[in-house]
């Protein structure tokens, strides 16, 4: 057996060399492309000659670093976006912030060409971060070669941060950043993002790297090194003559293929993982390039590590077939073999291959609201600190003067803000009130003037407030004084000559804050992977080829993570022998427990429940891959024969139903604002399931008992036992056996069995009505009236005030209530097409909350003129009509 080994240096490419021809650029769609030339002078842009891509300066995306340019002789060999670079001699972490469409799949590429721009001739190494997570480690190995890191990623927020991090091995720099939107139905992972390990044009007979415009997605396709034991097949293929699939590998790449010279040989290859725990996805692209005679066939099977993996595949003439791993490949060994089937007369061919490493970006970025607020505060004041990148994450780069709450996979929240002795002038900015989780606020020893604003007293978690040594005037809000007297707030206000602690002082407005640019450190991002693929060509031994037909999906196990598996004896310990019961559900009992010092809730499945077992599996499967701050997070599970349990984070304030049903005491009554925040949380959780998950997930059991509240009354959606994941290739609905809870169940789904996201929207509408009215979903007193019928009836009477939970005593903003009722009624439309999507619901609920907050900010006790509700148009369909 003959073995050969070729190492392909996959990041090394020299694009088009000096042949940069001024080809007339044909207008092609660049929408969804963001092409940034780092270091290019501010305000400039150009159209790159070989690709026709239009690049812009990076100056609007970053405010640190210095622009540098390469020597003319290097420029001649590279495309223009690499001619300039931005270097970061100062600061540990320097970040770009680029606005994008959130939850869209992007190919993100960072490119680096050192070119000895600094005359030091020392090859730097540094880290590249994407948001709060390490993306790659960049290692420049040759000054005159460019390298790049690529990742396929769905950013959760409306922006991405790309950071260059100094690791004490030279000055970080970056040459270009490119973002391209991809189709949602390509490169699907169970979890994590895909970092390019390699992407090869295997049959390449030129030395050319292909990208845009050959590739509509602008992926880089590198030529594989020439091999004597391969035969190269090629044909002329134009984009029009090639029948494409979703992946759209370029015609130029697909027009060549490699096949063994020995017609009986198998086509074998393997790669060596970066480390044993790496996980991979592989995509192989095939097109038949020869016209086969009637007595010829080319059919081959795939095996992985000696086991049947896929096949037989018969590549079609001038038509792309992509074979990929539907689930992650792991285990440290990746030996692929393409071998012809018995009836085949021709050996296997392969045109192109892509291999990606899975990057699990577990650290969430800081809550978007907190980021927006602190970023604006940063822009307003001269904060002589290194405020760069995400404020809270990763924790190693926490901004000076800040501290945050870190709660599992939840987005960190800012809890501590120290802006003392920072030379602040003007009034205390209202932006502070957006940092709603603040516990500690220190503004002492500045030159702040004007009153102590009321909004500070809306920061419910605040326990320390330091205002001393400023020039504040007027009176301190009563609520703050009361909280201080009650001992729940440590308040220091000394050395403010014009400030008095009684309400008799007159408020004096002073100057508006003068914005001052903050000085920040630099950002750095970069990643390099050194990968190698080994091609082996071996004689086919017909007896050695065994076809295993175990599974189509060799690694598609449902319980992927072994780490989070607990034994039954662990559970006994965690729950102290199941000492404390905190709930009982249809399928088992919920117990309280501790893992280290963290409280947890453990749902034990009763052994007799067959249906429960399926739901147990469904829930584990789902929660292992789905993480969002408004979904309860699964800490672990136990699956030991009949002992099955799920371990969740503990939700201190129980479920929403308990708070609405009047079991909660008056003191704990949820205010209108609380209710809206809970509704928004629940809506965001659902919105994430529908739009943030690919494929989308329908919860199927949205109801108030499945909305859990943590110690801060943050709501999380729970119980995913009935959830349905839509098939990746499927249409927009699935047919299922109807399941759900009476009262919340979508009538259309009940009749048609067609399940869509809109069924959840209906249930959410019912939930929202419950939140607004505090009434049960189905009234038992009258003849089983549904809550939506009751609300329709009240609306028809024009009696809107009595729709709202009477326990709130009218302490609500009428506009806000109106908006909420309108959303709820739209959600419970009989016709699912008339129901809004959850994204719309989230937006509208936020407007409703804004309206309520505006009322509160006008001052407690004062109510805005009530709006004449009857004059507002009510366009949505009312609830079910009585039969
Ligand atoms: C960049 O453009 C903006 C607006 O077009 C202009 O105000 C600014 O002066 C320009 N800056 C430079 C350096 O040309
Ligand atoms: C760097 O790359 C250039 C261009 O391919 C090559 O000529 C040179 O030998 C390389 N230098 C080193 C040190 O490998
Ligand atoms: C590709 O590059 C190699 C060495 O760099 C050279 O020997 C070969 O002729 C080149 N092939 C083509 C088609 O340019
Ligand atoms: C197919 O038929 C042609 C003649 O029509 C013959 O020359 C060739 O050997 C045949 N190939 C095979 C694999 O049988
Ligand atoms: C190829 O796979 C097919 C389908 O599983 C199987 O029937 C056939 O025996 C396999 N052939 C070889 C040569 O492995
Ligand atoms: C292979 O050929 C044999 C005999 O010609 C035939 O019976 C069998 O169905 C063929 N198998 C496939 C997979 O085409
Ligand atoms: C942030 O808070 C945590 C928990 O209170 C504490 O352990 C940590 O030292 C704080 N970090 C900073 C930088 O203040
Ligand atoms: C107050 O701030 C100034 C700088 O703004 C600083 O020099 C001084 O030491 C600070 N005083 C106290 C008591 O922190
Ligand atoms: C405090 O504010 C008053 C006006 O409100 C101003 O006259 C005075 O100079 C300020 N003092 C300081 C120390 O800034």
UniProtKB/TrEMBL annotation:
Q: Spell out the subcellular localization from the entry.
A: Membrane
Name this protein carries in UniProt = non-specific serine/threonine protein kinase
Membrane topology, as annotated: Single-pass membrane protein
SUPFAM superfamilies xrefs: L domain-like, Protein kinase-like (PK-like)
Segments forming domain Protein kinase:
576-849
Residues binding ATP are 603
InterPro entries under this entry? Kinase-like_dom_sf, Leu-rich_rpt, LRR_dom_sf, Malectin-like_Carb-bd_dom, Prot_kinase_dom, Protein_kinase_ATP_BS, Ser-Thr/Tyr_kinase_cat_dom, Ser/Thr_kinase_AS
Q: Which residues, if any, are the signal sequence?
A: 1-27
Instruction: List the GO cellular component terms.
Output: membrane
Q: One GO molecular function term?
A: protein serine/threonine kinase activity
